[in-house]
Specification:
disordered N terminus; eight-stranded parallel barrel; single chain; alpha+beta; 35 strands; 714 residues; 22% helix
């Protein structure tokens, strides 16, 4: 029988569907019956060669199970096994390989070879399936859900009297085909997670979860502006401004309640922010610790949250569980999403699992970056410090712990996504398994999984990002290559805008087809501050004296130019707290200074804050500034201009000059209408004629919208 491409795709989807979504043949009467087999498809590398599947069900005994030939060179095998997790490989002429069509992998016990992963559901139980397109959020908080009941292997049909929809009403159901229609109304702004359950005629029940965000500020993650909050250094209780900590490695006293106060006071709304990335909320050890080999005499506390010391407990120092729930509730009520920082790579030495499961960890003694343990060769096995044991995620139990923990934080607190710390320090299988686990929590799978793939500059960094992306990989990564380039072009002037434009083109080409969301930032808590790079003291001792704080002049002007590009390029801007205020800082921990009270700032830094606010509001309003489309209109060493367009035809023009004096540039006008435009930051009007000439002041940027654009403010 010929297997058409669409049929192959349908069968392959069984490999990656949620556990409750195995759809099979229909019994003569009643709802469709589950089919929990996994279908493995493959093509031989040598045409005509027979393929076999080796698997954990018989300890990878050779030659394995023979695959059956189909048309177009494809071979297939149905794995009909008891419920559970299995590993497998595809063997050809005695050589075994991963299944390229299965994105999830695990590791074989013993030699810990990476193997493809198959999950077999329990078909003795029924299931409820809800597809993303079957969840519709309407106006004024209305919700419509269509669910499909799948019968167990017994064939027992749906009992309509057992259907329950938390917060929903059953509008219609069919015991014949198993369809269930539910509706809800009056859902308030924010995230709502609803449980739908039903049972068969034998009393076996199934349930599914629907999670929707009603009236979010950003309808898509691609529309979002994310603000990175470093909790201990943001605000104290009730929003109090903080004093600097006693030492750079001490706690400053920031709390989750402080973030909630800032929410209620409109700090994030004024910046156009639609999502908050909160630093890790795990409980950390109370005692201070020594620094690394290069910094052994200075003591650091776990103020940052990256030393998990207990399982699933919110740090009391920042307010505990109730404060976290209140923060999430207040954010959701404003349409603002919340992203939690999760740390699956390591735990603190005091964590209970360290003593209970010694075999879950890579051997101690390999400290990252030491002479005997360089980053280049030891990234996945090294320990950050001697007191942060590194999980050996090739062990099934360790992998399950890390994956389940990340999913637990999302499900328990109903947050909208996670930022995964230290992605390259783990096998790629770990980030993919976390993505899969979070996708399975509810329908639709709208949670963001954003990975910290720390890279260097240039093409090598871009390729490194690509490795972790793809349809079943991370939804997004931070664009470190662009961050470094922005510093070279705008902070140090060691590169030109021509190189920046070429890098943007390279990134687009390299990541094409990955559906990747790029988090575009000027810096974060692990890098020196942009403004200090512009001063030239970003490499000074991060403890004493730290970087100088410029109050005006070129560094602040350069920071404004960088913010313009950050907030107008395609991608998802990620503002690290303090960048909007021109905050200085060398490396860790100097880059984690407390957020200053704007009342204490110089006029130049207040002007930077207002500039960022206006740009954030413009991006929040303008579909052109949120689109994926960018067209270069002019580029030379010292200036860049490009157009942004929405699919509906809305237009924005972005112009940036780092030149030390005024200059006139000429835009390519073939696709740009002439007429009057207004700068969203200053409100100034500009007339654009056929010659495309426009004058830019020294170290100036313009973000121009047509004068009659509804996002233009006088």
């Amino acid at each position: 029988m010929a297997i058409e491409p669409l049929a192959r795709a349908t069968l392959l989807a069984l490999l990656v569907m949620p556990a409750s979504a195995c759809v099979g043949s229909e019994p003569p009467t009643g709802p469709p019956r589950r089919d929990c087999r996994v279908i493995v498809w493959a093509q031989p590398e040598t045409p005509g060669s027979p393929l076999h599947v080796l698997g954990s069900w018989d300890d990878y005994a050779e030659p394995g199970l023979a695959m059956l030939a189909h048309d177009e060179g494809w071979q297939a095998l149905a794995l009909d096994l008891p419920a559970g997790e299995y590993g497998y490989l595809i063997a050809e002429n005695g050589v075994a390989r991963l299944d390229p069509l299965e994105p999830l992998t695990s590791f074989r016990p013993g030699d810990q070879r990476e193997v493809s992963r198959a999950w077999i559901d329990d078909c003795e139980l029924p299931a409820l399936v809800i597809l993303p397109d079957d969840v519709v959020v309407g106006p004024e908080g209305t919700l419509a859900v269509t669910a499909q009941f799948l019968a167990a292997s017994s064939g027992a049909g749906l009992d309509p009297t057992t259907i329950v929809g938390e917060g929903l009403q059953v509008q219609a159901s069919s015991s014949h085909d198993g369809t269930i229609e539910l509706v809800g109304a009056g859902l308030a702004r924010g995230r709502h997670t609803l449980v739908i359950a039903a049972a068969d005629e034998l009393g076996n029940s199934a349930e599914a979860k629907v999670s929707v965000f009603v009236d979010p500020v950003a309808a898509r993650w691609a529309d979002a502006i994310v603000y990175q909050v470093f909790t201990d250094r943001f605000h104290g209780p009730a929003g109090a401004w903080l004093d600097p900590p006693t030492t750079p490695g001490s706690r400053a006293g920031g709390t989750l309640d402080g973030i909630t106060a800032a929410l209620d006071q409109g700090w994030f709304d004024e910046l156009g922010v639609s999502a908050l990335w909160i630093s890790p909320v795990y409980r950390n050890p109370d005692e201070a610790r020594e620094g690394n080999e290069a910094d052994p005499d200075r003591l650091y506390t776990g103020y940052h949250g990256y030393w998990p010391a207990t399982a699933r407990e919110v740090e009391p120092e920042i307010g505990g569980e109730l404060a976290l729930r209140e923060l999430i509730d207040h954010a959701h009520a404003r349409g603002i999403a919340v992203i939690l920082d999760v740390v699956p790579n390591h735990v603190d030495e005091t964590h209970p699992i360290v003593g209970e499961h010694v075999d879950w960890f890579n051997p101690s003694g390999c400290v990252c970056g030491s002479a005997s343990c360089p980053w280049a060769t030891s990234t996945e096995v090294c320990w950050f410090t001697p007191y942060l044991p590194d999980l050996r995620l090739e062990r099934a139990e360790a992998m399950a712990f890390a994956v389940d923990d990340a999913a637990w934080w999302v499900e328990t607190f109903e947050v909208d996504g996670v930022r995964i710390d230290a992605v390259p320090m783990m096998p790629r299988a770990a980030s993919r398994r976390i993505v899969d686990a979070i996708d399975r929590i509810s329908t639709p799978s709208d949670r963001l999984v954003l990975g910290e793939v720390f890279t260097g500059a240039g093409s090598a960094g871009v390729s490194r990002l690509r490795w972790y992306l793809g349809p079943h990989g991370l939804a997004g990564v931070f664009d470190f290559p662009l961050m470094w380039m922005l510093r070279d072009v705008l902070a140090r002037e060691t590169a030109s805008f021509v190189e920046l434009d070429a890098l943007l083109t390279e990134i687009d080409a390299e990541l094409a087809g990955s559906d990747a969301l790029l988090g575009r930032m000027l810096g974060n808590h692990d890098t020196p501050r942009f403004v200090s790079a512009a001063v030239g003291d970003d490499q000074v001792d991060a403890w004493d004296p730290g970087a100088a704080q410029p109050e005006s002049g070129e560094p602040i002007e350069r920071a404004a130019l960088a913010s313009t590009l950050q907030l107008t390029l395609p991608g998802m801007p990620v503002i690290y707290q303090g960048d909007e205020l021109g905050l200085a800082g060398a490396g860790d921990p100097d880059n984690r200074r407390v957020l200053p009270d704007p009342a204490t700032l110089s006029p130049a830094r207040l002007a930077l804050l207002e500039h960022v606010r206006r740009l954030g509001q413009a991006r929040r309003c303008s579909p052109a500034l949120r689109s994926d489309l960018r067209e270069t209109l002019h580029v030379d060493a010292d200036s860049l201009a490009f157009a942004r367009r929405s699919p509906e035809g809305r237009l924005a023009l972005v112009l940036v000059s780092r030149a030390s004096g005024p200059r006139t540039i000429e835009l390519a006008m073939a696709s740009v209408p002439t007429g009057r435009y207004r700068d969203v930051s200053t409100g100034a009007l500009f007339e654009l004629a056929d010659d495309g000439e426009i004058e830019l002041g020294a170290r100036t940027s313009l973000v121009l919208l047509p004068e009659l654009d509804p996002c233009v403010a006088e």
